[in-house]
Design a protein that fits this description.
- By secondary structure, this protein is of the alpha/beta class.
- 27% of the residues lie in helices and 27% in strands.
- The protein has nine helices and 17 strands.
- It has a seven-stranded mixed beta sheet with strand order 9-15-10-11-12-13-14.
- The longest helix has 18 residues.
- The protein is elongated, with a radius of gyration of 22 Å.
Length: 352
């Protein structure tokens, strides 16, 4: 039985797993395909994280610092798993940098990717510069510190958020019928941030229904409306077009409350993107023979265990957004749970 663990993915779940293993004195190899740790929040320059409204550097930064400084953890950036042979307790893995290692257990934390809105051509992304994504709005806040229309650099007077782009959408087939879990809450937060800094900007949220889970209901649904004046409109977006007459966008939708079609001028439209399995998740699933949901292609746990961390392959554990939409705090928790399972599996003699 090899006494080391391979962690695949350096996002929140992978960092949490590696940190926990390192603290327990378990030799750990952490591989990350990108050139930096932190996953999507760091790579995509998220501005503020839900639910605690902290910056990524505040939440994920301490994990990165501890993982990089722990002598029990070997961090390999720009590196991927390319092959795996052997069996539980003695996996012989080959990495893209040419290294080969024998490990007793593997933790898969390969995360997700955001939906490509170009697949929804009627929403005008890539056609009209003032149709942007929630990721681009995050970068606008975090890197430039201001709100503006990409077409002319001016402050918009009216901003619309369009929920569930690439989520709960049967038109895309069975692959995108799941809820992204974070979009409703993030839009409420972004709407509040706009209204706080630009009180003269009108903000509208177009939704099918709002799913702010658990304790997120008041701070990210009611508070935006009651404290900041964000307007919620229940309706389905049919099309987003552009009017040369006034240089503004037109949001065409069916208002399902008053049951009539409507066309509303907007200066900036923000598409709230769904979550899909990352290319790395699909690739690793194939290499390791991991079970995937037949529709969404996210990884699924073993049918023989009540734990959602244990995969269908003995000695391989799965954590975080590679299994489906999940918030960052839950990803941290799952990473720690996977680390505990892996340490127990290899019979590690824990040192604290």
């Amino acid at each position: 039985m090899a006494k080391s663990v391979l962690v695949i993915g350096g996002g929140p779940a992978g960092l949490s797993a590696a940190r926990a293993l390192g603290r327990l004195g378990v030799p750990t190899i952490l591989v990350e395909k990108d050139g930096q740790l932190g996953g999507n929040p760091i790579k995509n320059h998220y501005h503020t994280l839900i639910p605690r409204k902290l910056k990524p550097s505040q939440v994920i930064g301490p994990y990165i610092k501890e993982v990089e400084s722990n002598p029990n953890i070997k961090v390999l950036l720009n590196t991927e798993l390319t092959a795996c042979e052997g069996e539980a307790g003695s996996f012989k893995v080959t990495l893209s940098n040419g290294e080969k290692h024998e490990v007793g257990a593997i933790i898969v934390a390969t995360g997700f990717e955001h939906f490509d809105p170009r697949r929804k051509g009627e929403l005008g992304y890539g056609l009209y510069p003032d149709v942007i994504t929630n990721l681009e709005l995050e970068r606008m806040f975090s890197q430039e510190g201001r709100l503006y229309r990409p077409s002319n650099g001016q402050l918009p007077k009216r901003v619309a958020f369009v929920f569930c782009v690439g989520s709960r959408d049967r038109q895309l087939g069975v692959t995108n019928v799941h809820c992204c879990r974070y979009g409703c809450a993030l839009s409420g937060l972004q709407g509040m941030e706009i209204r706080e800094h630009y009180p003269d900007v009108d903000v509208f949220c177009y939704y099918m229904d709002v799913r702010t889970y658990g304790t997120w209901e008041y701070p990210f649904y009611w508070a935006p409306q009651e404290k900041y004046g964000v307007r919620y409109v229940r309706g389905r977006i049919a099309e987003i077009t552009y009017s040369p007459a006034d240089g503004r966008l037109r949001v065409k939708h069916e208002d399902t409350i008053v049951q009539r079609p409507s066309e509303v001028p907007m200066d900036l439209v923000v598409l709230v993107l769904g979550m899909e399995p990352s290319p790395g998740t699909k690739k690793v699933a194939k290499i390791l023979g991991l079970a995937q949901d037949p529709d969404s292609q996210f990884l699924i746990p073993s049918d023989e265990s009540g734990s959602n961390i244990i995969s269908n392959k003995p000695g391989i554990f799965i954590a975080g957004a590679c299994k489906g939409p999940i918030d960052i705090e839950s990803s941290f928790s799952e990473g720690e749970a996977a680390a505990a399972e892996a340490a127990a599996f290899i019979g590690a003699k824990v040192t604290v």
